[in-house]
Amino acid sequence: MSDLMTPINQFYAVYNDNNLDLWDQAMADNYVGHVNADTIPSREIGKGFIGALLTAFPNIHYTVEDMVTEGNKVTSRWSATATHTGDLFGMPPTGKDVVMIGITIFRIENGQIAELWDVWDQAGMMAQLTAE
Fold first, then answer.
1. Beta pairing, strands 38-40 & 27-35
2. CA 79 to CA 3: how far, in whole Å?
3. Cα separation of 111 and 2, whole Å?
4. Range(s) of the domain holding residue 81
């Protein structure tokens, strides 16, 4: 179980500790991500996306609400809170607080995350950011 949890803990520490250096430790060289309908084809592209997210929301904090393991997979249901204080893919900072929810399935290979499937309410986050 600890072999499964080490990369999961590193993954969430990337966000909660705003420590992008942990990304390379947590993610396998052959990492592939599936986020909503998009495919993130490499660890480096994923790292760039997460870096942009951490710039937009430097105080982001994830709370794992539930976690289930089976074989080499770990599923987490999570919530996150953050304040939009940096550029978000061209959207200037709004200063607004957001709450996000989602479910992530991780596939662990040799002590690292080789693949993940992440479904989260991106539209809900954008609605919070654009609300008057």
1. antiparallel
2. 24
3. 9
4. 2-130
Query: How many domains does the chain divide into?
Result: 1
Q: What is the pLDDT of residues 62-107, one digit of tens each?
A: 999 999 999 999 999 999 999 999 999 899 999 999 999 999 999 9
Residue in the block written with tokens 């809900």: 124
Identity of the amino acid at 78: W
The pTM of this model reads: 0.94
Cα angle 124, 62, 58 (rounded to 5 degrees) comes to: 85
Residue recorded with tokens 């074989």: 71
CATH number at residue 6: 3.10.450.50
Q: Which helix (H) or strand (E) holds 93?
A: none
Is 95 strand, coil or helix?
A: coil
CB 97 within 8 A of CB 83: yes
